[in-house]
Amino acid sequence: MKKEIIKDCLLMTMGAFVYAFGINYFFVGNNFADGGVTGISIILHYLFNFDIGITYGIINIPLIILGYKLIGGEFIFKTLYGTVVTSVAFRLFSGYLGPMDDKFMAAVFGGILAGVGLGIMFASGGSSGGTDIIVKILNKFWDISVGKGFLAIDLIILSALGLLFGKEIFMYTLVGMFISTKVIDKIQDGFSKSKAITIISKNFFEIKNTIMKETERGTTIIPVKGGYTCEPKEMIICIVSIYDISTVKRIVRSLDNKAFMYITDVSEVLGEGFKELLN
Fold it and tell me: What is the pTM assigned to this prediction?
């Protein structure tokens, strides 16, 4: 367990530094912005010369407190760590700016680095904070999907950016954010809003109990028979969010490293714990 925690912290630190460098060097260096709390921090930096790292940390403090009270769990603790190291990284890279004549290429490479950084942080089971917490709360209490939550918040911030600094900045920032999202998807192996995980293991009882405890997701046990050995086995099926993938992998790896597991995309999930089942 300690090794997993250390590994996750190292990954989050690396991801935070890659993300902060990409945003500072390419986005801020060419007067672009970003979505979420980072975008708000950058806009305030342009308007009032506020330090991006400090502003980012200050805005995240009440969000983390709110997230801890309403969500809790490992995600919030990892998000707290991710927020701290991201704020520090923004401070360290504040002077590393790369103004370019070709603004489109700046948006492309900035989006790639930002996506790589955030993708690494998501893969470790945490995040950089900010709108991730808001979206989790909206999804849990008001059944607003993750995608719609991010889209709504980013549209508000980008609209403010366009009104304050012009349509070109708006469009270049949108290009960078689009590329960043695609890179995150690639790093996360095509993570969508939800994933279906199928596990076949001799230790199915311990695995399903640990999954239910740590992710607060239900599981289904189905008796199956191996095609090669014809031996009876038990198959676990569970539907989890994108934030739970790394947790489930860790659980299976720690309890049975010879287990068989595959993960598939789920286009829509209806029922308890997800979207309400309507007629």
Answer: 0.69
